Amino acid sequence: MLASPTLILSDAPGISREGDDTGVITQGLSSGSAGGGSGAGATIGRARANEAYVTIGENVITDYTVQAGQNGASSTCQPEFSVSGLTFGARVSKIDDNGFVTFSISPTITAATRTQDIPNCGQIEILAIRSLESGGARVRDGQTLIMTGVISDSDNQVVRKWPILGDMPLIGQFFRDTAGSRKKRELVILVSPRILRDDEGGAYGYGYQPSSSQSRDFLRTNVGSQPQ
Predict the structure, then answer these.
(1) CA angle 10, 107, 4 (to 5 degrees)
(2) Higher pLDDT, 21 or 154
(3) What is the CA radius of gyration of the chain?
């Protein structure tokens, strides 16, 4: 189980704030962003109310941008980061009156498999990526949609041998050892939409219960006397 996030979305496609969501995933948030700190430009919430995004993992260096120095100065290496872990986006298109939810999802799993040296800069991580972009899916409230078929398959073979002796015909097999392994992984995604109804659980929705006795008496007197 890589993650089990819960996203609360509206089916209203309108823009809830100005700005672009591109590049937000790797920026990170900081309390000093308003003053131009390291998190400047990061955003809280998606631009549209019917979209949400979850990121679980860490930022790793996957490339360097080399800038040539001027007037005899040495070149500089600017690292470029990518997420190693799970990113999961979802969009709700429509919630029907008969209890069906139409949505689309875009999960991506990345993992560092090896490193590579960049001359005069340092090491970068090579990421293995498994990604899925779904079309529109229509699922009844409370039912589970199972999405699968994203498979990674790898074969590894390691040969250990004595120098020269391991390469000799016939007797060379006694001086070398071969070990192999095969891994097959399949990504399975389970999505269960649930409709939150604000007309259930009390007059104010979601089982609201006032804390003070005065508030409870006020609600009992006024709400109870309203015509049905």
Answers:
(1) 70
(2) 154
(3) 28
